[in-house]
Amino acid sequence: MRELTYIARRTVEWREAPDPTIRSAREAIVTPVAATSCDVDSAILAGHGFIDPPFALGHECVARVTDIGEHVTGAAPGDLVVVPWSINCGTCAPCRDGLTAHCASVPHMAMYGAPIGGSWGGLFSDLVRVPYADAMLVPLPAGLDPVAMASAGDNWSLSWRLVAPHLKARPGARVLVVARGSIGLYVCDIARALGASDILYVDPDPEHRRLAEGYGARTVAATEPIPHGFDLAVEATGRVDQLTLAVKSLAPEGICESAGNHFRPGGLPLLDMYLTGVTLRIARDNVRAHLPEALGLAASGKVFPERVVSHVLDWEQLPDALAEKRLKPVFVRDC
């Protein structure tokens, strides 16, 4: 089979690798049918990653099951499934607590698309081994388009987690979204669907702002902090100055969720945060724990993730097209 391999800044290529095989009765083999890049992939391709190449890329896809071990009961060959980005067993103490990105059965940070916690391959590959099939794979609900939901294994479900629990606890909350890509747009859509009373989207890109306005958000290219302006702020830029903007715009006891990939150090306005009494969460997401509920919202017809898909491209275009700057390209093939 082929793996799409990152070899240098803005350079990827197909490399041959052995076909994965079933190693235990709990495993499955899947074939990605709709895969997309996320903010981490974009940072890696731009040369901002912290892992030396070469390695297989990709950790967002909808896939078709091609083979299963004899003890797998939750998926069958031919099923369309969402593959979460992190490797998790489903039975250890962290997994039972919903902390699936911190599974104790695999090395820390075990994931697809980057060899941090071992080499698990990437989801821009012809075939992928899923070591804990019943724990990891989630059937794609009937009627959902694999292209629209290509990001469900990471960015879409992450976006749900960034706002949905908070809007449940604070109905009608005011939401600030400071973003540069797909996560912020998904957040606008989900926040609107779940009853946010006001959404302000901050992004210098005019096309992104147009999409956010289609989700009912007010938009600006840039802003100064808006003291006590919002109950919830979501930052998805990877820039500490924009994280500062978010936390300085919170109402008393407000919450800031940071989904930015903060590869660079920086300082935060700790005194302002102390005086306002804010809660700040910066964390990689335990997608598998809330993926079914996030997919349930997607299947409700109340949200429109397909609007964020900027390009639908053939699988064979991956080596030439992936490094090009696009909002949310989805690469597809018939399987």
UniProtKB/TrEMBL annotation:
Residues 26-140 form the Alcohol dehydrogenase-like N-terminal domain. The keyword Aminoacyl-tRNA synthetase does not apply. It comes from the Bacteria. Gene3D superfamilies: Medium-chain alcohol dehydrogenases, catalytic domain (3.90.180.10). Pfam families: ADH_N. SUPFAM superfamilies: GroES-like, NAD(P)-binding Rossmann-fold domains. Its cofactor is Zn(2+). Keywords: Metal-binding, Zinc. This is Alcohol dehydrogenase catalytic domain-containing protein.
